[in-house]
C-alpha cells in the first residue's frame, strides 16, 4: 500500500512571510523525530497523540492553545497548508505527514511504524 506523504506546502502568502513561517516550523520540526502541533481541547489531537504515546514514541507536542504565540502559529500553519483548522499536524523526520486521516491511514496500513523507525522516533 502506498500512502502519499505531503512533502511540500503551498500558500498565497507574501514570499517574505512564507520564509519566516517555514523557518519557524522547520526549526521546531528539525529538533525532534516526531513533532505534533495540537490543541489541548481537540479530541482528534488527543487521538493522534494517544496513538503515538501507545506506540512508545517520544513526541514533541506543541499545544498551540498553551503557548504564548500559539494562536498566531495556528493561524500561520493553517495558511501554510491551506485549511482553517490545521491541527493535529504531524511531522515525522522533519517531513509534513498530515493530520488525523493520514496518520490513521499509515497506521492501519502498517506503514506508520516503519516511518517512525526510519526517522529515529521508534526504537523497537
Automatic annotation (TrEMBL):
Keywords: Cytoplasm, Redox-active center. It comes from the Eukaryota. It is found in: Cytoplasm. Gene3D superfamilies: Glutaredoxin. One of its GO terms (cellular component) is cytoplasm. Residues 34-97 form the Glutaredoxin domain. Pfam families: Glutaredoxin. Its main location: cytoplasm. InterPro entries: GlrX-like_pln_2, Glutaredoxin, Thioredoxin-like_sf. Belongs to the glutaredoxin family. CC-type subfamily. This is Glutaredoxin-C1. The gene is GRXC1.
Amino acid at each position: 500500500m502506498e500512502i502519499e506523504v505531503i512533502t511540500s506546502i503551498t500558500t498565497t502568502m507574501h514570499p517574505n512571510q512564507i520564509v519566516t513561517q517555514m523557518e519557524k516550523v522547520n526549526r521546531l520540526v528539525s529538533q525532534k523525530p516526531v513533532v505534533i502541533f495540537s490543541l489541548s481541547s481537540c479530541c482528534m489531537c488527543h487521538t493522534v497523540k494517544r496513538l503515538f504515546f501507545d506506540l512508545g514514541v517520544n513526541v514533541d507536542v506543541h499545544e498551540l492553545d498553551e503557548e504564548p504565540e500559539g494562536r498566531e502559529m495556528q493561524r500561520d500553519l493553517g495558511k501554510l497548508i491551506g485549511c482553517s483548522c490545521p491541527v493535529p499536524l504531524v511531522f515525522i523526520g522533519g517531513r509534513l505527514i498530515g493530520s488525523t486521516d493520514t496518520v490513521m491511514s499509515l497506521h492501519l496500513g502498517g506503514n506508520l511504524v516503519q516511518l517512525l523507525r526510519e526517522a529515529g522516533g521508534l526504537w523497537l
